[in-house]
Design a protein that fits this description.
Layout: H1 26-39, E1 47-51, E2 66-69, H2 75-85, E3 90-96, H3 97-102, H4 105-114, E4 119-124, H5 159-166, E5 170-175, H6 179-191, E6 196-201, H7 211-219, E7 220-222, H8 232-236, E8 245-252, H9 258-264, H10 278-283, H11 301-312, H12 317-325, H13 344-348
Parallel strand pairs: 1-2, 1-3, 3-4, 4-6, 5-6, 7-8
Antiparallel strand pairs: 5-8
Helix pairs in contact: 1-6
Bound molecules: thiamine diphosphate, iron/sulfur cluster and magnesium ion (MG).
Length: 350
């Protein structure tokens, strides 16, 4: 007798009650997260949500999956580590505009260019909410805030434009008030193989005013059907909008995943063998793992078999010496043949 368990959005609600201000856009984002996880039937034990610090970064606590409310600006390096150590997990990073583009801007750049297989939802309220309303990188020029009482003298950054220029392979924009649209974009981001960046415009009623929500809704436009998602120039045209707020997938290209490139590194480089070819496991995701989707970059058989044969081959003496000297506890094949091919990250995984 088979027993199939299905999850509803309510199953992803944790016992914690959100402490956001009444009317905060992050409530709607949270709702979309519950729905997206249910739509994809993500198993809670196979899902991790990692955040930084900020009002928005409280989100992992409200979701019944693994979660990590980490340090300001550090969601992406931690999510990257989780994904590399546990490649079968569905990894979602979340946080605010300040968390992702100000203090965490450097990490944003490297996660995008490395094309780590994680979905990143940035809740963009154009302000530092938790610390009481200072202007941040996405605050429009000229806007008065607690820290710019005469008007913001700086130019604002468009997070989608930034992500495209940094090499992200999937970039989209959503408005939190559009729960259906945001949910759809979240499911696409999670299914995407590679770094998927979703900029969610999410009003802060307390520091940006109650009118912000209405104004944003009035500006919302759906991406024209003829938009070509692989056309970089076309995508960038939607990242410099003043009077409109276009939602949808702006950019979507296939690029090799970080895991594929790691599998391709020859055994002797840096004295470490490549990690086991996790890409094959990743792409043959069985239904027990969430988000089945056709990989945009099917595992190149020649690449994986090269990596696999490199893994099995004994290391040259010099390389083995380099591993012995490495202070991470990594066991070289010379000392223990059973751990050949395991990387530092897999050794340290729980
Ligand atoms: C290293 C460090 N620097 C500064 C802070 C203070 N701090 C906490 S949250 C935050 C800004 C949060 O803004 P954002 O990421 O946009 O999130 P929001 O609260 O708007 O959702 C700042 C500056 C901190 N906690 N740690
Ligand atoms: S301060 Fe702004 S972002 Fe933070 S909970 Fe309140 S409304 Fe939301
Ligand atoms: Mg913010």
């Amino acid at each position: 007798m088979s027993c199939e368990v299905t999850f509803s959005p309510n199953d992803f609600k944790s016992d914690l009650k959100p402490v956001w201000c009444p009317g905060c856009g992050d409530f709607a984002v949270l709702n979309s997260v519950y729905r997206a996880l249910a739509d994809l039937q993500c198993l809670p034990q196979n899902t991790v949500i990692v955040s930084g610090i900020g009002c928005s970064s409280r989100l992992p606590g409200y979701v019944e999956t693994y979660g990590f409310n980490s340090l300001h600006g550090r969601a992406l390096p931690i999510a990257t580590g989780v994904k590399l150590a546990a490649p079968k997990m569905t990894v979602v990073a979340v946080g605010g505009d300040g968390d992702g583009i100000a203090i965490g801007g450097n990490h944003f750049m490297h996660a995008a260019r490395r094309n780590v297989d994680i979905a990143y939802f940035m809740m963009d309220n154009e302000i530092y909410g938790l610390t009481k309303g200072q202007a941040g990188p996405t605050t429009p020029s000229g806007d008065k805030t607690k820290s710019t009482t005469y008007g913001n003298p700086d130019a604002a950054v468009d997070p989608c434009g930034l992500a495209i220029s940094l090499g992200a392979s999937w970039v989209a924009r959503a408005f939190s008030g559009d729960v259906k649209g945001t949910t759809e974009l979240m499911t696409k981001a999670i299914r995407h193989h590679g770094f998927a960046f979703l900029n969610i415009i999410s009003p802060c009623v307390t520091w940006r005013g109650e009118h912000q929500s209405k104004e944003l809704r009035a500006k919302m436009r759906v991406l024209p059907a003829e938009h070509e998602v692989t056309n970089r120039e076309a995508a960038l045209r939607f990242t410099d909008e003043k009077d409109s707020l276009t939602v949808g997938v702006l950019y979507d290209i296939g690029r090799r995943l970080l895991s594929f490139r790691r599998a391709a590194v020859p055994a002797v480089v840096g004295g470490h063998p490549p990690r086991r070819p996790i890409a094959s496991e990743r792409d043959a995701r069985s239904p027990e793992f969430s988000a089945p989707s056709a990989p945009q970059w099917p595992a190149p058989a020649s690449l994986l078999s090269t990596a696999e044969s490199a893994r099995r081959a004994p290391l040259p003496t010099a390389a083995a010496r380099a591993c012995d000297a490495f202070p991470c506890g990594w066991t070289s094949p010379a000392r223990d043949s059973t751990s050949a091919g395991r990387s530092l990250l897999s050794i340290h995984a729980p």
